[in-house]
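notes to self, project folder thing:

trying the whole complex as one job this time. last attempt i did each chain seperately and stitching them together was a nightmare. two parts in total, labels are on each line so i dont mix them up again. if this works i'll redo the older ones the same way
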Amino acid sequence: MSKSKDKITKTIALAGNPNVGKSTVFNELTGSSQHTGNWTGKTVDVAKDKFTYNFVNYDIYDLPGTYSLIATSKEEKISRDFIESKNYDCLVCVIDATNLERNLNLLLQISEVTDNIVILLNLCDEAKKRNIEIDADKLSELLKIPVVKATARSGKGINNLLNEIDLICNNKKKSKINRITYINPIEQALKILEDESIPRYKAIRMLENENIIEDEKLNIAYKKAKNTLKKFELDKNKFDEKLTSSIFAKSRVITANVQKKKVSKISLRENKLDNFLMGKYTSIPAILMILGVVLYITIAGSNYPSAYLQQVFNDFEIYLQKIMLNIGFSQTLISLLDFGILRVLLWVVAVMFPPMAIFFPLFAILEEFGLFPRIAFNLDSCFKFCGACGKQALTTCMGYGCNAVGVVGARIIDSKREQKLAIITNSLSPCNGRFPLLIAIISMFFTKNIFFASIILLSFLVLSLVMTLISSFCLTNTVLKGESSSFVLELPPYRKPHFIKTIWQSFKEKVVFVLLRAVVVAAPAGLVIWLLANVFCGESSLLSIISEFLEPFGKLLGMDGVILLGFILGFPANEIVIPIILMAYLSTGTLADYTSLESLKDILVNNGWTILTALNTCIFSMFHFPCSTTLITVYKETKSLKCTLLSVVTPLLVGVVLCIATNLVFTFA
Amino acid sequence: MTLAQMSQNEKGIISFISNDCNIKRRLLDLGFVSGSEVAFVRKNIFGSPIAYNIEGSVVALRKKDAKKVGVIL
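result (full assembly):
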């Protein structure tokens, strides 16, 4: 029970199998916007928030999904420990109505631990579509646990849930502890420990593993119980098997009693879609096509707002300059504020923001739809060949959104070695912050045609995937030796995305995120560039000294010193690389009008950019070191300096090798 | 026979999971317990992974793991 000082604060937790909508319920209850998706293992950490209902304050925890309390992975252990700690007043067990039997497996285990449970039968709309009928009253009667039917995505049933939570938390209602009857030898062994007043679920945990017990009397009982198991040849493996099959047997009986199922058209339709997305000949083209369409919409959609924003910001700047002049600011101060801080900031918003604001929501829709696990299914053989886990395809996909998220997401990979592979190679997939750079350069230097531009961008993505595989292969055969191990991949049913909600939510997140980051990172970076350009050391500015120092390296990579400096200063956030480069060029040369992409191109061309420079800047932006946020995340996740270092060296090496190669080809061809 | 030997449109009942299967625990939790109904769903072009319908959900295993699970048609 909660022992908080504040008596009216109650604690509740959401538990359940992976991908049953726990985070959606969490969001509905608290009004927060936890990221939701359609695949197993999306929530890898405990989220916490609070809300008030009926004059009672509630702390609510969203636990990572788990299949059973006999935990195997790190995040499953988090859930199990939380559930068994009993530090809550009410546990909401979220159950997928389309998959009752398997979900009951966990519920039955939980109901051995606590009697403060509510069942939230979620995804009832999906179940209905699939012609699955569940008699909630009967289920409640059989289990002696309150059952609330819900469709959390549209908020249905949430009020009933709140009501039940209120009843349980305030002791107006109790459910009864459920006992599963196991086969005889297990029951005998459990009885011995239960007689020593050990709760049943703890006794099971004790029997599962070899334990050393301090208490002498208890130790005797424990040995006796273990011997009982031994007599019937129930070693750990057999014990696990018998335990699970007893639970499933009970789930099966309950399911048969409460569920009616008919064949539905939906599963036939889904099957057709699966045949297309995972079919022999269609899978790869289909996925490339979907990605291509997303990229096309991103490029086409961001052209106009980007140009518009640049125009508006340009006018704004001129206006602001006038004001500052009127106030009586000195020329230097105006130059510092405007050309230094403000311009980089506005460029980040104008050039980087529109593609991000379009790509990210589209990507979220694909995620919600359930595409990513299918990609993982298609690509597993490639990852296996490279010694990696098929789920790395999932983390790679997440990396296209944000590398730091991809790195944290690697927790879904059970094997430590394969998890490290996924973490180290994640920044090889260009994140949302790098897409705008690619798009801007492609449309400036390669093609104006949106269709061809999306094809080029798509090939960059494929290149990044190929490099991810090659790097994984090289790492597997050098520093991270080992063989590709086993894994289980769930292919969830497709879920119709909530277009407006998803788009709005991810847009909102991105707006706040980009604007904040722009202020936090771009402004000081602009200041640094301005200072470098205006502080002179002898004849030349610091900026030209530094970029001249970097020049030979830049030239070797088919770029120049300023571009390298841009990448180095862009370490805190990749979004600012292009604006920084432009600022650096502008501060040394004449000021140009920059109201269109065309004028930006002129600045670059005037500073010696060729097709090769453009190509290599693209390549280098995809493959250099991860941004600071990602790097910190890598260290947090691996707690290993070696891995952190590798996550810098690996992409950098790929970028350097590719850039030198293209440079050589261009020089000699 | 094992899961790996199943082919299109075949259904069966799980009979055992071999002890040297290193994801045995996970498979048990997903419903691969003796007595459960299992159906072949699809194979990847390269023959692995293979997807099965188990307890109402679709789960894909690599071929070498599918070989560790016994099934009776």
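what i see at first glance: Residues 1-5 of chain A have pLDDT under 50 and may be disordered.
need to look closer tmrw
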